[in-house]
Amino acid sequence: MDLHSLPALTVLSDCVTIVEHDQVKMVRIIHDKASAAIALHGGHVVSFQPAGQDDLIWMSDAALFDGKAALRGGIPVCWPWFGRLAAPAHGFARTSEWQLLEHRENEYGVILVLGLSDSDTTQAIWPYQFDLRLEVEVTEQLKVSLKVTNQDEKAWTFSGALHTYLNVGDVRQVKTTGMGSEYIDSLQDAKVCQGGETLVLTDTIDRVYTQPVAQIEVQDPLLGRSLVVENSGHNSAVLWNPWAQGAAAMADMTDDGYQTMLCVESALHSPCLSAGQTLQPGESHTLTTTISVR
Length: 294
Description:
The chain is mainly β. The chain has helices spanning about 120-125, 245-250, and strands at about 10, 15-20, 25-30, 35-40, 45-50, 75-80, 100-105, 110-115, 130-140, 140-150, 155-160, 160, 165, 175, 180-185, 190-195, 200, 205-210, 215-220, 225-230, 235-240, 260-270, 275-280, 285-294.
């Protein structure tokens, strides 16, 4: 998908336009510091490319932009739960239509704010009142913040993730550090395991790292760069790659797609719906991921 070639449907400013790819409208940013695109379907970052760099974000060549399915790649917003704790998997935020509430820019970059609130559709799935604000800050780095506010008259509990797919040259060559040594292995029935301080993949991985440090670094020798992921408001970092067998089973990923992606996610992980982050009426919580290149 060549974002620059898509015709503008609406020009909002010198740097910000609305474009459409298949059935999905996107906010496109073209700034001296970086270019980016955020789909209104899912509030989903699909591209972030600092000047002079390959895209830091991976999108599947087979992703479905039909306005219904979740997009494969980018930064899905998993909310109000993460995983298969209820239906739909990873919640409804990633398949809901978000609204562009605000955009502003200066010489350093562009900030967008997207919003999603409860509706009859969401109430039928999850019977609570809420307000979500997704702030996307596009400068020489990408900062994505999900602010969750309880607008109900009663407390409720949630989990979630900013499910970032990083673009790498060859996942078999990258070295990842900073995720910590303790992890819950989703491929071993949530067994708690101990690993090394450096991770090099040789097969599928689906791990919830419970003690990540402030910065997780993905060293990419093929593209000659390191991607740095800094999270806040989280309780874990999830690392995932489906490998060949997983990619082959997905209609929206090419068979070799796994070779150029690695998910490093800012997550509020919970084993069940009732054990997540609890917000009292009027309270808020912000989950953030910041991605830069070194």
